[in-house]
Amino acid sequence: MNSPLADRLRPQKIEDVAGQKHLISEGKVLRKIINSGNTPNLIFYGPSGVGKTTVAKIIAENCGKKLCYLNATTASTADIKEIVSSIGSIDAAGGILLYLDEIQYFNKKQQQILLSYIENGDITLIAATTENPYFYVYNAILSRSTVFEFKTLSPDDIRTVIDRAIGILSGEKGKKIVISEESLKKLSLAAAGDVRKALNMLELCVLTSETEKEINIKDETAEEIIASNTVRYDREGDEHYDIISAYQKSMRGSDPDAAVYYLGRLLAAGDLPSACRRLLVCACEDVGLAFPQIIPIVKAAVDTAREVGLPEARIPLADAVVLVATSPKSNSAYNAINAAMSDIEKGIGGNIPRQLQNKHFDGEDAEVKGQNYKYPHDYPNHYVKQQYLPNELKDRHYYEFGDNKTEQKYREYWNSVKK
Which of 40, 112, 260, 358 lies at 20 to 30 Å from 381 by C-alpha? Predict the structure, then answer.
């Protein structure tokens, strides 16, 4: 009874898991993996409270491995080694399945140490993250794992869980729980797809409405609890993306006041990864070559923020955000790579010009013998004209100098040299 309601209601069978039908319905890949009992390394990606831990526990039950749990926000390398030390023991005879929550908080070195145990088969890994694993998880671990994205639960999914919870709470307390349909709908919506949040609010409604004879949850009580427990910033909902969009657009639009405000919104919600990632992107995409030195400056500020953590992380990030917002802007390199990628995706291209190839002999069928590469440093101003793009693209121009002072100086220099 003392354990949280979410733990008491945790499904024991995959059929009872709410939502995630795109992963666990009959015939889906993850369902087949669970049924097989032969578990590969997995990465579960998705918001909090949507069933990642529950599915991991069910997998552990089905595959006969000992389930060990670590949270990367507090775990150390020593914790991993302690888990590995139990290999071969009676309780880990079938092997160890490590559920590593918030893997994005493990640094590269920690992930590399974990990789060594994955590679030799000592550990089967199920890693969970609320952030895109392709940004935060070490490539070698990604290449050895299968990524499954867990989706935010719908209000109908949440409602199903709430109805089940009411039945269990009623049985535990030996009293009927009375709650209006309107309050049930509001609880389902206010949870924002997070089962744990829904159950916490429901349990609080019950605790504050219980009398000796009954549990009658009034609409006013439910509304008050919803208002005090609903986070105004949903990291996985539309507001999350709206705030990130406003954050970057404010920096791009050179408004330092708005930029630090939206930075504050992100940090108040504990979303340090998004604040750092968007800041780095903005420095490269929107300031770019107008002030190229800004990229290592912002990277240093982000590294400092990640090192010190919140709340102090707000200080170096504020420095960097104001710097980005007040710097001159150029998206010339951004436009150049987009144009080049567009041609590549369309299949426009061809063979690398012979003078650039990494071979120093020709076959009998070569029309022109010899590489004929001209080494620019052997020529005045370290420049000599020669073809670098494939023949099909030899006249293509992807990069156009921006109108800022830095790029205009480069343009003047190269115009004088190339003339």
Answer: 358
Residues 128, 54 contacting (CB under 8 angstroms): no
pTM over 0.85, yes/no: no
Assign 135 to helix, strand or coil.
Answer: helix
Percent of the chain with pLDDT over 70: 92
Pairwise CA distance, residues 256 & 259, whole Å: 5
Cβ atoms 5, 109 nearer than 8 A = no
- CA quadruple 176, 182, 185, 189: dihedral sign: negative
CA of 215: how far to CAs of 186, 230, 331, in Å?
18, 23, 61
- SS3 category, 99: strand
d(CA 187, CA 205): 10
Distance CA(331)–CA(282), nearest Å, equals: 10
Average pLDDT over residues 4-14: 78
Dig out the tokens for 212 from the structure. Answer: 């000796």
Q: Could you tell me the two tokens for 196? A: 């744990």
Which residues sit opposite 178 in a β-bridge? 216
Is the separation of the CB atoms in 41 and 125 below 8 Å? Answer: yes
Separation of alpha carbons 195 and 304, rounded Å: 34
Helices (H), 180-331: 181-190, 195-209, 219-229, 238-252, 256-268, 272-282, 294-308, 314-326
Q: How far apart are CA 172 and CA 260, in angstroms?
A: 49
The pLDDT mean for the chain works out to 84
